[in-house]
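I am writing to request your help with a piece of structural work I have in hand. Here, with my thanks, is the record as I have it:
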Amino acid sequence: MAWSTRELAELAHTTVNTVRHYHRLGLLEEPDRRYNGYKQYGARHLVSLLRIRRLAALGVPLAQMQELGAGAPALRRFCRKWMRS
């Protein structure tokens, strides 16, 4: 299944501008484009967007999320450090 930027934003309960902001920050991978130039998002983009939104809701600064994009080990280190402070 492929979604447009608007559809992806709606699925994640956010806005198109927020999705674009995450692209500019390098937090959300740019998707492939369709023949007409429109972005074509897939399930992995939705999962990434939901993860970013959840971390932001937990108080993780957007500037630190790039480091956490490395995967589970980086996220575990961050959580341990965060819980100590």
Notes: The helical segments are 5-11, 16-25, 43-57, 62-68, 72-84.
